[in-house]
């Protein structure tokens, strides 16, 4: 079972997700998006599955610090570059298991996906 989590090491929700996985005996790999660059392919795939509106955290401090021009970007390639420049714009944690992506931490969703 290959589980990957993408987030920030100091994010409390990411820590909760990791603790839940550990408590349930599930091994995973955690990627701090500030230290491990996200590829354009990863971001494009996630955006295709989730949509940019779900993937971007528009309530974050980072989002509030962007220019109006940056906030109004709609082109996928521009949005990919924006998230690569500001990885904390991505909602987190993002869990990838097989072909399924879960965004945020929800015990019920984690249980349904991982305890089969």
TrEMBL record:
Q: Which domain of life is it from?
A: Bacteria
Q: What is an example of a Pfam family matching this protein?
A: ArsC
Among SUPFAM superfamilies, the record links this protein to: Thioredoxin-like
Family annotation (InterPro entries) = Arsenate_reductase-like (IPR006660), Thioredoxin-like_sf (IPR036249), Tscrpt_reg_Spx/MgsR (IPR006504)
Q: Which family does it belong to?
A: Belongs to the ArsC family.
Query: Under what name is this protein listed?
Result: Spx/MgsR family RNA polymerase-binding regulatory protein
Organism this protein belongs to: Pelistega ratti
């Amino acid at each position: 079972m290959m589980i990957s989590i993408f987030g920030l090491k100091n994010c409390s929700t990411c820590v909760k997700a990791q603790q839940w996985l550990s408590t349930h005996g599930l091994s995973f790999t955690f990627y701090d998006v500030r230290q491990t660059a996200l590829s354009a392919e990863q971001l494009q795939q996630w955006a295709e599955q989730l949509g940019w509106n779900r993937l971007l955290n528009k309530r974050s401090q980072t989002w509030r610090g962007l220019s109006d021009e940056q906030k109004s970007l709609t082109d996928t390639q521009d949005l990919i570059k924006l998230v690569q420049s500001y990885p904390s714009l991505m909602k987190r944690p993002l869990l990838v298991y097989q072909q399924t992506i879960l965004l945020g931490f929800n015990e019920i969703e984690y249980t349904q996906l991982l305890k089969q």
